[in-house]
Description:
By secondary structure, the chain is α/β, with parallel strands linked by helices. It has helices at residues 19-26, 35-51, 68-76, 86-94, 111-120, 130-142, 181-190, 210-229, 255-266, 279-282, 317-321, and strands at residues 4-7, 11-14, 17-18, 30-34, 56-61, 80-83, 102-104, 124-127, 147-154, 176-177, 194-200, 236-238, 272-275, 286-296, 304-308, 327-329, 340-345, 354-361, 369-372, 393-398, 401-406. 27% of the residues lie in helices and 25% in strands. Strands 4, 14, 15, 16, 17, 18, 19, 20 and 21 form a nine-stranded mixed sheet that branches. It binds ligand LLP. Its cofactor is pyridoxal 5'-phosphate. The active site is at residue 349. Pyridoxal 5'-phosphate binds at residues 242, 276-279, 378.
Amino acid sequence: RPSLRMDAQAGLSFEDVPLHLVARTLGTPCWVTGAGTLRRRTRNLKTAFVEAGLDVAIHYALKANDHLATLTVLREEGCGADVVSGGELHRAIHAGLAPEDIVFSGVGKTREEMALALRLGVGQINVESAEELHRLSRVATGADRSARVALRVNPDIDAGTHDKISTGRAGDKFGIAWDQAATLYAEAAALPGLEPVGLAVHIGSQILSPAPFRAAFARVAALVRQLRAEGMTVRTVDCGGGLGIRYRDEIAPPPAALAGAIKETLGTLDVALAVEPGRWIAAPAGVLLSSVIDVKRTPDGAPDFLILDAAMNDLARPALYESWHGILPLSPERLHVDPTPQTVVGPVCESSDVFAEARPLPPLREGDLVAILDTGAYGSVMSSTYNSRPFAAQAMVENGVWQPIRARQPVEALWADETLPDWLRRVS
Ligand code: LLP
């Protein structure tokens, strides 16, 4: 991980900022986002497309990390956005993204969200069903607008990823069934208020082989040809997100492999191309800092429990998907001691609040700091306040400097919006 460095004085640094400084100032748990890493990865992705001779727009999937600072960095790097809710759309606009660079995806858009997207003039709405297509036509005609529509097709391809993040198989809730896509495209062309511009496909997340991408894009390319042969206009193909990263020892395909898959299948079709990466750009650009609350010894030789002050309410991925994240102590001295297997847990009252089982780690003590790695995507955005644990603080680093980008939520904010019904108000 090129942006992380361990040295004898400063301990673990991220983009040349010693992380203990951030943790001691803001307290823990605390998320740190690396702006330089976001930039470097975006540029690497762009370079891969350019080197393949392709012009591919990058619509960053906001859901991975939607902090305004992240969005500002990515806007500066020339990214557009993929949004999946009215909230994300407002956020993208607030971060200064141009409406025409925004694609609105998602399996269930409300009428209000559709109207908002049309009013703001988003570049494209990806439609996922016949029902949604008809609803959008009604909303658009009612608002006297025309919606640029791409049909998100379900190519019935197994991306070989975790069940809970697979989206491109026939039984998944996403996308338009393959054998209905052509008919629906023709229908879209005939419906008022709609301008079908192309096709979209997204088959899953943390995909570790180019093969499912190639297979999905090949099916989409065949459909583009078929639609054109039937006299329809297809101007764009949105290739979705899903490119995986190395969390542990996975062999993740480099961006060049994705570019190759796109070029091979869609390269000669004369369509405007776009991708919607979230994880690949953002995951390695974030760490979660946490302090050791205690080490709970276990009888009968089982691994000790390392109890952190971060928990599943902060980082949900291990509890939800059994995902593996690297864990490093911030202090260099700790690394000289032989590691022993420890089970790293949070304090939340759920058995699934486990970050790592029997993970070899040096002996740690109360107050020691650790970094949980590759948590820049689907980390802070999936936090909750379960167990009345406030949202954690956040900082951004770049080129050896750091600043806070989100205050720790004050505990009073947890109940600030709550009210009592009249009959529970006591007259004093
Ligand atoms: N486009 C669409 C239509 C999507 O549904 C997604 C992710 C993306 C793009 C971005 O995919 P990415 O490049 O990040 O793989 N919370 C899960 C991941 C859920 C992904 C949902 N859709 C996790 O933590 O692994």
